[in-house]
Design a protein that fits this description.
Blueprint (H helix, E strand, L loop, with lengths): L2 H30 L3 H37 L3 H28 L1 H8 L7 H14 L1 H18 L4 H5 L1 H14 L7 H24 L15 H17 L1 H13 L5 H36 L3 H28 L1 H9 L6 H16 L1 H15 L5 H25 L3 H23 L7 H27 L11 H23 L11
């Protein structure tokens, strides 16, 4: 397997999806701004989408792929039976969960957005919208199962492309809402669930060559199934610790008007780098790493882990620096229109700055956790993630009353970096990783390239400083120019310094 080629395939479709996601969020910002309608919709969307991220972006893969790949290597028929049993159990569990959530939605909203109970109108709308969006969880989770099957067979394109459907449907629904006498937030909510159904159908079509799911109540719960589900819950928690921290932040932020929206928009901006530097690299490396661990191929294990870390740091460190330096320019260019006023720009940019500090940590955790998952160890990352979440809650609650919503991205970043250090301690203690000479050669050159790029970006931002006023019509174009020049300079400097050459990223 060529790591860079597979990662590029996954990243290409992921970037397309995230760009469309930005278009979607720009339109939502224009139509809804940071109003009560926006806050209510984002809470309604946050809940099923958090579960989507937990399943689709590592958690389900972490538990399923090592088990499925191990069985597949020995017996294809047994692997199919295992997958069918998992699929049917998941369907029943998810269906039950969705039905219960629909019945007890007011209580669920109280848990995730308790601050809404101070605003009856916002509360009522959030409950209504959440009931509409929640079926998305069922279909997108099953779609994620099918994606894990495809990833196990080293097929990444369809799984990465599926989320594009969600953004296309939501964009289309916003324009459609202008032609019908139905509130745009309700149309958006219905569009979320409809998109989940379409994602499932798409992946069902692509997976049929490798697996044919058949709904059945006859489920054989053997040792393999018990072992898988014993790993699933801790892997969901540990793989999705960043999303869990953000969900907790949303709960706390619900007590401050507009804060939910500020955090949502800031979260959306840095997610594109996390998708490439962490999720894409982690998703691609896990099936192959699991195979190498099963065969005790120490040389390939070391090579793959080091190359994955290189790629992760090469992509995440410059992104973090760029987001810190240009947070205000990015937010005003992407969202500073219509109902999204200047105050919203300032607050969202501030949240983005502090989220950006944690971007390398968010990405590294996706790689480090795979070191454990590939070895069928989901408990260690789980325990470390529990500590991280508790720390995040303590920091957020302790300082929210003094400094408001901005403590939430600060707490998320601080707790994530501490989580990275804890993971690294246990990786070294258990001798799961050795830094090879190539990694130690490249790391300082990556840092040098980032420093040079940061200087160029800082100068460009100063040169175009008068082009980013709130009412400037062409500010997005100027941002695009700055991004292109900065990216080009970074890749050129990296190539010149020897920091990174794509041809070297391959697994022999």
């Amino acid at each position: 397997m060529n790591l860079i080629a597979s990662t590029s395939t996954f990243s290409f479709f992921t970037i397309i999806s995230r760009i469309l996601g930005y278009v979607r969020d720009i339109l939502i910002a224009i139509f809804l701004g940071t109003s009560l309608f926006a806050d209510a919709f984002f809470v309604a969307f946050r809940l099923p989408n958090t579960f989507r991220r937990l399943f689709a972006e590592g958690a389900f893969n972490a538990a399923f792929i090592p088990s499925y790949s191990g069985i597949l290597a020995v017996d294809k028929s047994e692997a199919d039976n295992f997958a069918k049993n998992v699929f049917n159990l998941l369907f029943l569990i998810l269906l039950f969960f969705v039905v219960v959530a629909e019945i007890f939605m007011p209580q669920l909203i109280f848990i995730i957005a308790p601050g809404f109970y101070n605003d009856p109108e916002k509360l009522e709308l959030a409950i209504e919208l959440s009931r509409i969006t929640f079926p998305f969880l069922l279909f997108v989770s099953l779609a994620s199962f099918l994606a894990a099957i495809l990833n196990s067979h080293n097929k990444f394109a369809a799984a990465a492309a599926a989320p594009i459907i969600l953004n296309i449907i939501l964009i289309g629904s916003l324009f459609f809402s202008q032609w019908v006498n139905i509130p745009n937030v309700k149309i958006l909510a219905y569009a979320v669930s409809f998109a989940g159904i379409l994602q499932f159908i798409l992946l069902l079509f692509f997976v049929k060559k490798n697996f044919k799911p058949i709904l059945s109540l006859k489920i054989k719960i053997d040792k393999k199934i018990k072992f898988f589900f014993s790993k699933l819950l801790p892997s969901i928690f540990s793989s999705g610790v960043t999303q869990i921290n953000i969900l907790i932040g949303t709960i706390i932020a619900s007590f401050q008007a507009g804060a939910v929206s500020y955090l949502y928009y800031a979260d959306r901006v840095y997610q594109i780098n996390l998708a490439v530097a962490g999720i894409a690299v982690g998703t691609v490396m896990l099936p192959e790493l699991s195979k190498y661990v099963k065969t005790n191929d120490f040389e390939k294990i070391t090579n793959l882990q080091n190359r994955a870390l290189e790629l992760c740091l090469f992509l995440s460190i410059p992104a973090a620096i760029a987001l810190v330096l240009a947070s205000n320019q990015i937010i005003t260019s992407l969202f500073g229109y219509g109902s999204f006023d200047n105050e919203s720009v300032i607050n969202t940019a501030l949240a983005l700055t502090y989220f950006a500090i944690g971007v390398p940590a968010f990405s590294i955790l996706k790689i480090f956790s795979n070191f454990f998952f590939a070895r069928d160890d989901t408990k260690t990352p789980f325990y470390l993630s529990v500590i991280s979440v508790i720390l995040n809650i303590v920091i957020s609650v302790s300082f929210f009353g003094q400094i408001g919503f901005i403590i939430i991205p600060i707490a998320t970043s601080v707790s994530s970096w501490i989580n990275v250090l804890m993971h690294f301690y246990y990786i070294k203690k258990r001798r799961l990783h050795i830094f090879d000479s190539k990694f130690t050669y490249k790391l300082p050159r990556i840092i040098l390239s980032v420093v040079v790029m940061a200087v160029i970006l800082y100068l460009l931002l100063g040169f175009f400083s008068d082009k980013f006023g709130y009412n400037e019509s062409w500010k997005f174009i100027y941002l695009f120019i700055i991004v292109i020049i900065s990216l080009a300079s970074y890749f050129l400097i990296s190539n010149f310094s020897g920091a990174f050459k794509f041809k070297e990223i391959k697994i022999k």
